[in-house]
């Protein structure tokens, strides 16, 4: 991935930068609540419900940065919100989102934190990592629906049935059609809900 701006890491390599006063950056959720909540302006004659998903479609088309998910010994993802893991100060957990006690949405559910891992770096793709840390865009940089059809020929062929121009698909427990499942669609999570851990094979 080419940089538009020079990197600005606190340690010069990977650690998130600090504010000019030396403190940690504010929580993304705090910024979201203070800047956007109750300040949204709707233009009914200009936008409809497709605006948000279409914008997300374009974003995923030109940028694909898989998370560098850290796993426990039992194969489950590390919960960066647990106190014991905060003490370990995992570098991959630096983006974990903390919610303020008076959060207008999450405080109702006693939710104070959400795990968010940082993206995969060049170290995952190449034998010799780039320094300072460089994150790799796994998608093509064009508006070509690569998040659906793939970014290279081999993956594009894998996603197709090669019959009538159709794409491969999987059928969920409810009978609905989905993108091909990567994991077992009947795998149960620790909460007992089905399909919560399903991953999809797409571009």
TrEMBL record:
Gene Ontology CC terms: extracellular region
Alphabetical keyword list: Glycoprotein, Oxidoreductase, Peroxidase, Secreted
Biological process terms in GO annotation: response to oxidative stress
Main location: secreted
Location within or outside the cell: Secreted
PANTHER family for the chain: CHORION PEROXIDASE, OXIDASE/PEROXIDASE
Protein name listed in UniProt: Chorion peroxidase
Organism expressing this protein natively: Schizaphis graminum (Green bug aphid)
């Amino acid at each position: 991935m080419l940089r538009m701006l020079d990197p600005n890491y606190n340690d010069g390599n990977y650690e998130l930068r600090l504010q000019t006063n030396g403190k940690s950056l504010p929580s993304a959720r705090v910024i979201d609540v203070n800047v956007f909540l109750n300040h949204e302006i709707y233009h009914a004659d200009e936008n409809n419900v497709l605006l948000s998903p279409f914008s997300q479609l374009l974003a995923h088309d030109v940028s694909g940065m898989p998370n560098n998910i850290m796993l426990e010994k039992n194969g489950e993802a590390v919960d960066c919100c647990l106190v014991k893991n905060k003490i370990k100060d995992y570098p991959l957990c630096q983006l974990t989102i903390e919610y303020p006690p008076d959060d207008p949405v999450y405080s109702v559910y006693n939710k104070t934190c959400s795990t968010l891992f940082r993206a995969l770096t060049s170290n995952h793709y190449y034998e010799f990592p780039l320094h300072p840390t460089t994150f790799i865009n796994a998608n093509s940089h064009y508006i070509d629906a690569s998040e659906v059809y793939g970014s290279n020929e081999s993956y594009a062929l894998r996603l197709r049935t090669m019959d009538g121009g159709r794409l491969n698909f999987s059928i969920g427990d409810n009978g609905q059609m989905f993108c091909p499942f990567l994991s077992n669609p009947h795998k149960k999570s620790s909460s007992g809900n089905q399909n919560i851990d399903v991953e999809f094979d797409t571009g």
